[in-house]
Structure formats: structure tokens, C-alpha cells
Design goal:
The protein is of the alpha/beta class. It has a domain of about 170 residues: Vaccinia Virus protein VP39 (Rossmann fold). The protein is about 40% helix and about 25% strand. The chain has ten helices and eight strands. Strands 1, 2, 3, 4, 5, 6, 7 and 8 form an eight-stranded mixed sheet that branches. Helix 7 packs across helix 10. The protein starts with a helix and ends in a 6-residue tail after the last strand. The relative contact order is 0.16. Bound molecules: benzoic acid. The site of benzoic acid has 8 residues, from loops.
Length: about 250
């Protein structure tokens, strides 16, 4: 997936603004080392750093990393894939917001996460859960046919089964409906242009625009009201700990 990092920050800042609740669950402590997996433009990485933790931001998008480094030059941002990364030194916590629904090889990702944690370390994540943005997915398929979706939206049962396979113990898990407002007549097309590019990657630019317009028109009767679109986000939120010796 390629990102328009500026548009993401300008019009879709709710992605990291909603991340505050997951940050509260992470409760970063001074002196800890924490990996922010899928750090995007770095706002939550910076919030972790400001709690006094030593933080690494990892992302597989060069465009996002460029924004993150420009926004927060003092933070250690690194290029890496969530399903392939390895750290030199294990960390106290792996944090991830709005990333893991892009990672279809969830076994590989969880294997990397578990390997990156110290014994007793914690994995705190939020991402799209089962049924996430279903009306958008249905409209995309209605317009574009059986195109492969780039997104992975597991149930609690599916994901916790995977994390337990890799030596992590689920402490808490939630599936949360979070209808999200996107403003403006062109809000849905804009959202699709930032997040659903993979669906139209084989089309010419003019065809892409008209495909997204058709998707928005399908959604308009139920999802556009008083100048505001509703995107039916559904979040899977997980807290798990690596088994083994606990921190004192
Ligand atoms: C999400 O955060 O759930 C999400 C964002 C963009 C595309 C798909 C899902």
C-alpha cells in the first residue's frame, strides 16, 4: 500500500487522535523501551516518548517515515515490515494502532512481535476488527467486482488464537463499534483515495476517480447526512503479555 502521508495527516488525523485510548491502555513508563509498530506520521510515537519511554517507531511506508522524521526529528524511526522485522534488543512493550488490519500474514507479524518482547513484556494493539467498515467493503465490491481486499479484520477468537500460539497470553480483548465522521461532500471519495487505493491499482487514474465516485454514490443514501459521512469503524483492541518471568 502506498500512502499520501500529507493528506492522511491533514484530513484523517482522527486515526491517531483515537489512538489516545490505546495509549492509555499501554500506560508507558519512564525508562521503558517501547516499539510503536506501524508508527505512521509519528504522533503516537511522540506521545510515548513524552511519557519518558525510549521509543522506536517502525513503518513500511517511506512516505510516512519521511513525515514522522520531519515532525519529530529526535525520535528513532526505522523502516520495517510488521511481518518481517527483528530488533537487536528486546523491548518492554510493543504498541500498535491502526496498522495490523493491513497485515494479512498475521502469524508472521505475531511471531515478530513475540520475539521482540522481553519475557513478561506486553503487546497492546488496536486495529480493524471483524465487520470493520463493512458497508464500504460491500460498496467497493459492488462497483469493482471480486477484487482482493488489502484488509484483514479478524474476530477476537481468531486473533487471540494466533497470539496464544506464539507464547502471548491474552489479558483483555474488545470488539468496539466506533462510527467515525468524515466531513464534506467529497469526504468519502477523499477517504477512499487515501485508504482504498489498492482496490483500484490496476485502473487508469480517470477510471479510479469514477470508480470511487460510484462507490460514494452507493453509500450516500445511508451514510451521508447533513454534510457528514459516517464510516462504520469497528476496532479490535487487545492487551496480551509474553509469558515467562514477569517484571518485579
Ligand atoms: C481502520 O483503521 O480500521 C481502517 C483504516 C483504513 C482502511 C481500512 C480500515
Amino acid at each position: 500500500m502506498s500512502w499520501d502521508a500529507k493528506q492522511y495527516q491533514r484530513r484523517h488525523s482522527y486515526v491517531f487522535e483515537y489512538g489516545q485510548a490505546v495509549l492509555d491502555l499501554l500506560a508507558p513508563q519512564s525508562g521503558e523501551t517501547i516499539l510503536d509498530l506501524g508508527c505512521g506520521s509519528g504522533q503516537l510515537t511522540a506521545a510515548i516518548a513524552s511519557a519518558g519511554a525510549s521509543v522506536i517507531g517502525l513503518d513500511s511506508s517511506s512516505a510516512m517515515l519521511a513525515e514522522a522524521r520531519a515532525n519529530f526529528p529526535a525520535i528513532d524511526f526505522r523502516f520495517g515490515d510488521a511481518a518481517e522485522f527483528a530488533l537487536d534488543h528486546p523491548v518492554d512493550a510493543v504498541f500498535s494502532n491502526a496498522t495490523l488490519h493491513w497485515v494479512k500474514n498475521s502469524d508472521a507479524a505475531v511471531h515478530c512481535i513475540a520475539r521482540a518482547l522481553k519475557p513478561g513484556g506486553r503487546f497492546v494493539a488496536e486495529f480493524g476488527g471483524h465487520g470493520n467498515i463493512q458497508p464500504v467493503v460491500d460498496a467497493l465490491h459492488a462497483v469493482l467486482g471480486p477484487v482482493e481486499s488489502p484488509w484483514y479484520y479478524p474476530t477476537i477468537g481468531e486473533y487471540t488464537t494466533i497470539i496464544e500460539r506464539y507464547g502471548l497470553e491474552t489479558r483483555e480483548a474488545w470488539l468496539i463499534d466506533r462510527p467515525t465522521k468524515v466531513e464534506g461532500e467529497d469526504g468519502m471519495e477523499d477517504w477512499l483515495g487515501v485508504f482504498a487505493r489498492d482496490f483500484v491499482r490496476d485502473l487508469e487514474p480517470a477510471q479510479r476517480k469514477s470508480a470511487f465516485r460510484s462507490v460514494a454514490e452507493r453509500l450516500r443514501p445511508t451514510k451521508f447526512r447533513d454534510g457528514v459521512w459516517t464510516v462504520d469503524y469497528r476496532r479490535l483492541r487487545i492487551v496480551a503479555h509474553k509469558t515467562g518471568a514477569r517484571k518485579p
